[in-house]
Write a structure and sequence with these properties.
The protein has 82 residues and is mainly alpha-helical. The protein is built from 4 helices and no strands. The chain has one domain. 59% of the residues lie in helices and 0% in strands.
């Protein structure tokens, strides 16, 4: 798997940390937040499973803007050849 040269922005990382620290955050929001934070200071590549979940979040009306922001960040760092 190739290294990713893109990293999560400070703004999105801060949002992700807040989501993870909130006991009322949904499971999917925490999943998106964890993935975004894992790409903050490393060159981890987004996995295909999380890419699929993030894509579904963005296509649905049932998720919050916060969750969609995290999903968008994840997809912006995804493997374009998939």
């Amino acid at each position: 798997m190739a290294n990713n040269k893109k990293i999560t922005s400070d703004k999105v990382a801060s949002l992700a940390a807040k989501v993870l620290g909130n006991p009322n955050s949904s499971e999917i929001a925490k999943k998106m937040a964890g993935s975004a934070l894992s790409q903050k200071q490393s060159k981890h590549q987004t996995g295909s499973e999380i890419e699929d979940s993030a894509s579904k979040v963005l296509k649905s009306d049932k998720y919050s803007e916060t969750t969609k922001t995290l999903a968008g960040s994840i997809l912006s760092q995804s493997n374009k050849s998939r």
